[in-house]
Amino acid sequence: GDNLKATALYLNVSHYIPFQRTTKILSDLLGMKISEGSLENILEKAKEKARPHYSWIKEELKKSDWVGSDETGFRFGGENGYRWVWQNNFFSYFVSHKSRGYQVVKDYFGEDYEGILVHDCYSAQNKTPAKLHQLCLPHIFRKLNSLIQFQRSKWAFKIKKCFKKAL
């Protein structure tokens, strides 16, 4: 039924749980045995239902003052791929693609964003046209932590403390 389909989608899409594990969880917790092929059919039907909303979500993101962007590697069917996301507090626009290159940005997000792009400084995001670029805070904190831990940097400690106070 619809609840089972929604649960399967939630596990696989929101939590990136692979097909095999998703079907195992559904079997273990709900006693519902579905095949990976059935899960793929559920995802395909959901994708088609959601398709009319993709461009609207992307356009809403482009109107916002800031957008966070990231790409994360994953394996699907034994092949490497990347799950891209552009998001803000209200919208998330996901794309799965075999490439990690800038062409994915051009093809799916476009080159007409006029706000602040927050990202991890990966080259594809660095190339993305935007009013401004901002390195995301978790990446800044990682670099500061490294400076504190390995170089005993007092400056890095003070900056980290300043950022935390500002937050």
Structural write-up:
By secondary structure, the protein is an alpha/beta fold. The chain is built from 7 helices and 5 strands, in the order αααβββαβαβαα. It has a 5-stranded mixed beta sheet. A hairpin with a 2-residue loop joins strand 1 (66-76) and strand 2 (79-87). The longest helix is centred in the first third of the chain and has 28 residues, at 36-63. The N and C termini lie far apart (44 Å).
Considering the chains and any ligands shown, give keywords for the structure.
alpha/beta; 56% helix; 167 residues; 7 helices; globular
Brief overview:
The protein is an alpha/beta fold. Helices cover about 55% and strands about 20% of the residues. Strand 4, helix 5 (about 125) and strand 5 (about 130-135) form a beta-alpha-beta unit.
Give the oligomeric state of the chains in this entry, treating copies of one chain as homo and distinct chains as hetero.
Answer: single chain
> Rg from C-alpha positions?
20 Å
Assess the beta-strand content as a share of residues. 15-25%
Helix count? 7
Most strands sheet: 5 strands, mixed
Q: Considering DSSP H and I runs of 4 or more, what fraction of the residues is helical?
A: 55-70%
Q: Name the poorly predicted regions.
A: none
What order do the SSEs take from the amino end to the carboxyl end, as H and E?
A: HHHEEEHEHEHH
Strand order of the largest sheet: 3-2-1-4-5
Termini gap:
44 Å
How many β strands by DSSP? 5
**Based on helices, strands and strand pairing, what is the structural class?**
alpha/beta
The 3D shape can be described as globular
Mean pLDDT: 94
